[in-house]
């Protein structure tokens, strides 16, 4: 896991309340969104576009409020055996809750228990509840409810999500104990992730900047459909024709756009950069930083520059675990797309809807051509792109264990 970096100027005015419905700190109304009327992003005209907290107020009843004892019961007191992951902010457990009306089968869920909360932890928890309470898309994780108690034993903040059987894209790309994800599945995953992000950037009355796009935040259901998770760092985009909001840089090193790290100027184009990084992870099967490799190969983005997408050398960077079972035409297209997402000039990067279009084309090309090794000598063996579900299910069951990706910086 790459660590999130958190450099906060902050000083917030957010409140904490026992058993309360979440309230967003004032952060989202500072910086870019504070002045005057909101402006509808599509038309540029002054309108009554609502903020996320406003939309949340209309939808909050859709979320279940759990008591701590319910969630203790669901996880057998947060039993270590039920722990399925750990991130920078807390641990994730598999659990079983009762259906809302008490009737029907128990529901399998993932419960994230935040570590002892600092102010920032609380703020992220609130942001997560409010964004996921409002956003609805097949490629975003479903938040079922939350728990908030400020008892004698301290502050407790938990989140209850639908359970995603195949964990994260990161687990599948980099954990050698997990079978390789076939080419077409990789494309399907990245296309779905792009559709989720296009919804955030372009499909709502407010623009949402995700700010934490990385392979560990792309969760996979039993059919390897992707859903974006972790909205604790999400922000509303700038109002009107402003290009960015200004904020202390937070996110994950290795994925954050350079201009954002350097200046704190945040825009949807910062997400596009992170998307470009993940495109190269998918192509190469390498992490953004691989400390165990020779120095020249350690930084993914530097290394791939030596193998341009339209050169003969390009196929040398493709994940060897794919064993040539990929479409080189589509891979080149994705390499070029990644390069455009990684343009140093933020405004030159494509829009997410354009990314979706190009990936859709790449999916089609992969349907038409199976294995194409046009740079190497002779064709590789015919591709039998077996159903990923068939291939993977067995091995996942065999390797059931606490899934921790290989430790990283
Ligand atoms: N809804 C879920 N269903 C199944 N597994 C999940 C779910 N949410 C999280 N996980 C698992 O828990 C792991 C940890 O998730 P978490 O979001 O806490 O940390 P992270 O994304 O790895 O890192 P960071 O804290 O830097 O974002 C994930 O990589 C995934 O394997
Ligand atoms: Mg995460």
Automatic annotation (TrEMBL):
Regions of compositional bias (Polar residues) in chain numbering: 381-390
UniProt keyword terms in alphabetical order: ATP-binding, Cell membrane, Kinase, Membrane, Nucleotide-binding, Serine/threonine-protein kinase, Transferase
UniProt binding sites for ATP: 113
Domain annotation Protein kinase: ranges: 78-363
Gene Ontology MF term list: ATP binding; protein serine/threonine kinase activity
InterPro entries: Kinase-like_dom_sf, Plant_Ser_Thr_Prot_Kinase, Prot_kinase_dom, Protein_kinase_ATP_BS, Ser-Thr/Tyr_kinase_cat_dom, Ser/Thr_kinase_AS
Region (Disordered): 13-53, 367-409
Main EC class the enzyme belongs to: transferase
Top-rank lineage group of the source organism: Eukaryota
EC code(s) of this entry: 2.7.11.1
Catalysed transformations (reactions): L-threonyl-[protein] + ATP = O-phospho-L-threonyl-[protein] + ADP + H(+); L-seryl-[protein] + ATP = O-phospho-L-seryl-[protein] + ADP + H(+)
Basic and acidic residues bias spans: 26-38
GO cellular component terms listed in the entry, alphabetical order: plasma membrane
Annotated Pfam families: PK_Tyr_Ser-Thr (PF07714)
Intracellular or extracellular location(s): Cell membrane
UniProt xrefs under SUPFAM superfamilies: Protein kinase-like (PK-like)
UniProt similarity note: Belongs to the protein kinase superfamily.
PANTHER family for the chain: OS01G0588500 PROTEIN-RELATED
Protein name, per record: non-specific serine/threonine protein kinase
Lineage, top ranks: Eukaryota, Viridiplantae, Streptophyta, Embryophyta, Tracheophyta
């Amino acid at each position: 896991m790459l660590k999130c970096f958190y450099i906060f100027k902050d000083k917030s005015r957010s409140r904490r309340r026992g058993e309360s419905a979440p309230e967003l700190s004032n952060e989202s109304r500072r910086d870019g969104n504070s002045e005057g009327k909101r402006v509808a992003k599509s038309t540029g005209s002054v309108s009554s576009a609502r903020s996320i907290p406003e939309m949340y107020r209309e939808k909050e009843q859709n979320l279940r409020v759990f008591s701590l004892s319910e969630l203790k019961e669901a996880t057998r007191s947060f039993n270590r055996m039920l722990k399925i992951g750990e991130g920078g902010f807390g641990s994730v457990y598999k659990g079983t809750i009762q259906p809302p009306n008490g009737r029907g089968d128990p529901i399998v869920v993932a419960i994230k228990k935040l570590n002892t909360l600092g102010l920032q932890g609380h703020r992220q928890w609130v942001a997560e509840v409010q964004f996921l309470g409002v956003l609805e898309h097949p490629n975003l994780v479903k938040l079922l409810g939350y728990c908030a108690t400020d008892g004698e034993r301290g502050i407790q903040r938990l989140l209850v999500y639908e359970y995603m059987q195949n964990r994260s894209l990161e687990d599948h790309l980099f954990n050698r104990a997990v079978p390789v994800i076939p080419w077409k599945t990789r494309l399907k995953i990245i296309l779905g992730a792009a559709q989720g992000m296009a919804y955030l950037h372009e499909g709502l009355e407010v623009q949402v900047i995700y700010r934490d796009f990385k392979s560990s935040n792309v969760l996979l259901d039993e059919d390897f459909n992707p859903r974006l998770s972790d909205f604790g760092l999400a922000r509303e985009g700038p109002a009107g024709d402003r290009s960015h909001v200004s904020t202390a840089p937070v996110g994950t090193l290795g994925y954050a756009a350079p201009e954002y790290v350097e200046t704190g100027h945040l825009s949807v184009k910062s997400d596009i950069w992170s998307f470009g990084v993940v495109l190269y992870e998918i192509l190469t099967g390498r992490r953004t930083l691989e400390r165990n490799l020779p120095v020249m190969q350690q930084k993914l983005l530097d290394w791939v520059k030596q193998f341009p997408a339209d050169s003969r050398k390009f196929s040398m960077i493709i994940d060897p675990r794919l064993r040539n079972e990929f479409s080189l035409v589509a891979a080149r297209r994705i390499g070029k797309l990644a390069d455009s997402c990684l343009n140093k000039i933020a405004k030159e990067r494509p829009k997410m809807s354009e990314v979706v279009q190009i990936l859709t084309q790449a999916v089609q090309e992969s349907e038409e051509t199976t294995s194409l090794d046009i740079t190497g000598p002779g064709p590789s063996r015919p591709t039998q792109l077996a159903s990923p579900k068939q291939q993977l299910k067995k091995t996942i069951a065999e390797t059931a264990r606490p899934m921790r990706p290989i430790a990283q910086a």
